[in-house]
């Protein structure tokens, strides 16, 4: 997605981070690309200005950059994982934030990434913050991440299907997930503005 001229240098930084991640992980950057495209469609549906959509798109493209620090053996492990392994997986959010905060973005890209596993009711991670502390862009990213993750093939399992993904965001609507964002996502899918493997 072309970005506005003032953001071009920041997009190039993001592209460099993605290129580095692709050297070691053949799956995650593709997941990020597809999630980013769904984020854009939801944000457009909500009427966000182009500048905010640019930032959301870039944040979504690197939202799992912290997984570069986690072994592929664990990332791709089939079946159930232990509590200890889940604790390791969850560190990717903090790692991603710690990397991105060193780049002098003139906007809250690192903060968006930091909050993409936070929930309105405070049950998310890594900080357990609640609605007021979660940027709208992060709320969009969270919904998009869930939909893409469930509806796409993963290294450790086949796709569970779009219907399962949509049922899940409906289930979490208003408790963990922003209802306005969920509704916009449902409209995007219903209008076929995005589908699995769209990126």
TrEMBL record:
Coiled coil residues, start to end: none
Domain HD-GYP: from-to ranges: 6-199
Pfam families found in the cross-reference section: HD_5
Protein name: HD domain-containing protein
Lineage, uppermost ranks: Bacteria, Pseudomonadati, Pseudomonadota, Betaproteobacteria, Burkholderiales
